[in-house]
User: Fold this.
Amino acid sequence: MRTVRKETKTLTWIHAGKRKSGDNHSGSLSKLNDSLESPVRFQTLTIFFGELYIQYYIMATSNTTTTPPPQHQQVDTATAEELTAKAAHKRYEGLMMVRTKAIKGKGAWYWAHLEPMLVHNTDTGLPKAVKLRCSLCDAVFSASNPSRTASEHLKRGTCPNFNSVPKPISSISPNTALLPSPSSSGGVGGGATTVVHGSSNRKRPVVSSSGLSGSGGVASSAYPVTAVGSTYQVSPLAIVDPSRFSGEMAMLPQQPHLMLSGGKEDLGALAMLEDSVKRLKSPKTSPGQALSKTQIDCALDYLADWVYESCGSVSFSSLEHPKFRAFLNQVGLPVVSRRDFVGGRLDVKYEEARAESEARIRDAMFFQIASDGWKVKSNGSSGDVNFVNLTVNLPNGTSLYRRAVFASGSVPSKYAEEVFWETITGICGSLVQQCVGIVADRFKAKALRSLENQNHWMINLSCQLQGFTSLIKDFSKELPLFRTVSENCFKLASFVNNKTPVRNSFHKYQLQEYGNAGLLRMPLREYEKMDFGPVYTMLEDVLSSARALQLVLHDESYKIVSMEDPTAREVAEMIGDVRFWNDMDAVHSLVKLIKEMAQEIEAERPLVGQCLPLWDELRAKVKAWCSKFHIAEGAVEKVIETRFKKNYHPAWAAAYILDPLYLLRDNSGKYLPPFKCLTSEQEKDVDKLITRLVSREEAHIVLMELMKWRTEGLDPVYAKAVQMRERDPITGKMRIVNPQSSRLVWETYLTEFKSLGKVAVRLIFLHATSCGFKCNWSLLRWVYAHGQSRAGMDKVQKLIFIAAHSKLDRREFLSDEDKDADLFALANGEDDVLNEVLVDASSV
Assistant:
């Protein structure tokens, strides 16, 4: 049942007269009948104006009606509430996604202070709306426009706690301009000033009595200003109609026009001349408080760190740019010289970083060498130079940069072997047993195997990232599906790009459907077989333009071309064939699957014990892909197994067995090594590797300890402590709380396994990837041009070492170009997510 009360009011003028003396009320209201139960109420209203008053008579009539609810109202209400809850939850997830990216540095600044929250219905408990809560003052706002909320609540000072936190530059409002204090004689009429109240644009300006009187009076300045302390703020609403003041303006003294022989270009020189005269008249005055020598040295030290760590992104010549020098002068810093930054200051920074790196290596009992960059990256440019990194991985999980090697073209394996051994002896001298092994992106079959055969204690691995990336190339060579899709897409893209009427029609529908237009990106034929990356880019372009391509077929221009060109008819049949799109989607999905796993490997840098689980995860995902797209599993599994055998090392199985992180709980509650997950060949590999890593006298002892480890395992309390996980606040994935606990358990708790423990601690810390520091292309271009200069290359080595040492210490593995690419890729991502959320919410 619903009760509706309607009220109608009638206002009638009764009487007007003169107020009696002593009555000081400006207005009164008398209630004759104000009973809620009565349908009619009477009131009198008296309003006073000075000595006069007017009296009104008000009659209010109320009506109350009760209507029963419709029979289908409850059902419709429940449906509407469910749809509203679904839309609110989806919008909340979208806002949380945007905020998570912003916290990582890939979004707007205000998401650090605004938190999305779901508002639930008190009756049903379902979400009914999404709000934004300010984390500084707990105020709640609508989530319809986060940018406007940030502007109104944070930028304009509404939040009482926002002033106490550091503000990003993007949050500073640019609509405030400060002017120097005007002289007292600068106004008309003896210093009249106009005050514009900033709180409301509807308030009229107040002109002082010293200004010109009358409606045609002119204030002292053509632009209204507001006094703020000792400065004046220009008001943006300073609009004057000159026709209203033509008479008065004619009476004002006119400034004679200044004629300079050089024209307007002389105005800048004249301003500099006047500035010089002022400084000579008052040489002791300074624009601000001077910095102390300590502050200047500290600031220049930070500046040097930034320049060196950018590793070529910031040119040394830019330090002498006029604008940068003006900036230094503005903040009170002296002018810097690029020669100083590539001379003594660079040497000092290098020695500091080198000494710190050497000290960390000396503290470690053993280490692993990681090297990447040997793989030739052919991009069609002449004079390709491989930038090879040599990094030291320590047992505590840290990585230290060692040096860079620049090699041109294909490098022989013998040269790589010499570089590896020279690096090892340069670190530990004759105590080469401290080097547990090497992980590299190339030379597994020759250089790495040769060093392993010569030194029985070494474990040399191939990079897992390179293995997964090579798998894409294997598929493109071995699977006929890849060749068919590549050829069809190349034919389609070539026809659309090269046929002018078709291209124009394609661009027209691109603008109509997507808001932008462009050619389909195509690979160069000579590099198509070497790298599948350009082919994958072409597939993405074709898939993303599917709607526009289908509309092109119905365009009149395409029909005319089809009548004369048989290729047009063939392309039309291809676009209209569902199998063409399904096959292309299948290839694109498989490559995307592998690329995503490779990106995850590069970001997480897994250890050797995780290799077998990674390949098992890949097999499961590929099997699901085959089922989805109805692809025969035999050929696909054959390609995966071939690549697995090329990358496999017995250390994968041994580390998987010895790492307490992968222990499995059996029915009795024991945590035992996962021998049941290994094949019979892999179990034999575990025995062979462990006995190879110890002396002959310890071989039988280590096998007995391995049997004991297999049957007894680890105490459940310690096993649970090692395997304890927590959710990463940025990625949302579960991660190990203490990655070093696997090794520490062997060194502190499992001391009874003397021989096996020595093998375990040297084995389970090994990295399975060689990816490390990435150099910027700006520095590599300099190497291409000046690689023959010994002094220049020495400075480049020092610069790379400083930058790599700092970035590896912060575990920052992306180059500046990669981070900029992510930034531009996500430039409109936040708006797209927000728009999608808003559209979905508004459609409910």
Q: What stands out?
A: The radius of gyration is 38 Å.
